[in-house]
Amino acid sequence: MWQDPLFGIWFNLSNVMMLLVAALIVFLIAFFATRNLKLKPTGMQNFMEWIMDFVKGIIKSNMDWRDGGRFHVLGITLLMFIFVSNMLGLPFSIVVNGDLWWKSPTADPTVTMTLAATIIILSHYYGIKQKGLKNYGADYLKPMPFLFPLKIIEEFANTLTLGLRLYGNIFAGEILLGLLAGLGGAGIFGFAAAALPMMAWQGFSIFIGAIQAFIFVMLTMVYISHKVADDH
Amino acid sequence: MFFDHLVLGATGEFLNIGDIAATLIVFIALMLLLKKFAWGPLMGVMQEREDLIASEIETAENSRLESKKMLEEQRNLLKDARTQAQEIVENAKKQGEVSREEIITTARAEAGRMKDAAVLEIANERDKAISAVREEVVALSLLAATKVLEKEISEEDNRQLINETIAKAGEVQ
User: What PANTHER family would the database entry show (chain B) (predicted)?
Assistant: First the structure.
């Protein structure tokens, strides 16, 4: 923890560093994959186009492309950023003087909740922008006016579940990896005992990291479409 | 504070406003940078390709329609040509028929005319021959008369002579 001397704001420098690392990796991948673009795609361009089409498919399954096209960039960036963030904590972690430095940025609730809250706020913003304040407000009274309190709770529940699901999955994965790593470093028998579960869990974590990135983007589009689209 | 019990994964007793700001700034900056350097160009290329494919399909469709139209045209032309050829052959046949008829009629008329001419000539010749014979008869009669006058023959002889002469003339006639 580090306090900014000017405003007295607290930073977790590990988070800040890992966010920057994740962003840098995503940027480099995307940047170098999209150099030398051709009409006949090859290699990395194919891969990036596959990701774009994938996100496009997610959006299209939730709303009209006319409404959803503007969230394309958001969706792709979210997917890649969260996936890379989830992967960062897998190969190793670095602990200096009892402080965890190298980890997944998504293994921190502050980060995931920030992303989730951003998404929910965006969905409200676009809901009001798209349908007007009146229709937006009227949605809280549908299908029954007495469900209004539940609707309010739903908004907060959505935010919480969206952020905490990601955090929980990644954090749990890292805890278990940390425990196995501790066991593996304890001695020759410990290493023998830990090697196999370690491999299994890392493979599983890769899977979970990919799935969680997908789920996050999927739910993002679901929440936004609930607010933006008329036909629900 | 009451909310302290709700804090999850807290690394300290402070709310990490700095982390929140960092997350937002990093994410939004990443999004904008990628939009400018990666997604924008990539989307442009994909859009371009989409347009290209659409235009190619349209072109193919157009040329297909055009070739279909041309084929139809050619087919019609061929049909026309065939009909025309048939017509020409038909005409020629009719023409031939007509001229054959004409030739035959002319030939027939010519033949008739020639026959008539021949008949006329024959009649002429006959008339000429008859008149010649008549002249001969007259001459003979004169001759006979002269002989009668010269010889003073009997009445019987005279009659016989005259009869002979007349019979001779009649034979000639």
Answer: ATP SYNTHASE SUBUNIT B, ATP SYNTHASE SUBUNIT B', CHLOROPLASTIC
Query: Nearest Cβ partner of B41 from A37, A109, A118?
Result: A37
Boundaries of every domain in chain B: 9-172
Give the angle B34-B35-B38 at the CA atoms, nearest 5°. 55
Query: Which residues on chain B are in Cβ contact (under 8 Å) with A12?
Result: 11, 16, 18-19
As a whole number of angstroms, the distance between CA A160 and CA A10 comes to 22
Q: In this predicted model, what pLDDT tens digit does every residue of A172-217 receive, in sequence order?
A: 998 888 888 888 877 888 888 888 888 899 899 999 999 999 999 9
Q: Are A123 and A224 in contact (CB under 8 A)?
A: yes
Buried b (16+ CB within 10 A) or exposed e, B10-35: ebeeeebebbbebbbebbeebbebbb
Strand, helix or coil for residue A91: coil
CA distance A185 to A95: 14
When mean pLDDT is compared across A98-107, A121-130, A154-163, B84-93, the lowest value belongs to A98-107
Q: Which one of A11, A37, A74 has the shortest CB-CB distance to B22?
A: A11
pLDDT, tens only, A135-158: 888 888 877 888 888 989 999 999
- The Cβ-side half-sphere exposure at B126, using a 13 Å CA radius, reads 7
B82 Rama sector, left if φ>0, alpha if ψ -120 to 50, beta otherwise: alpha
Indicate which of B7, B34, B45, B56 best probes the interface with A, i.e. most A CBs within 10 Å of its own CB.
B34
What is the rounded CA–CA span in Å between residue B14 and residue A174? 23
Q: How far apart are the first and last CA of chain A?
A: 45
Domain membership of residue A206 as a residue range? 2-228
Number of domains in chain A: 1
Distances (CA, A) of B52 to A174, B45, B48, B62: 47, 10, 6, 15
How far apart CA B47 and CA B57 sit, in angstroms, is 15
**A74 residue type, one letter:** L
**CB within 8 Å of A219: residues ≥ 6 apart:** A162
Of A10, A30, A41, the CB nearest to B38: A30
Q: Are A226 and A123 in contact (CB under 8 A)?
A: yes
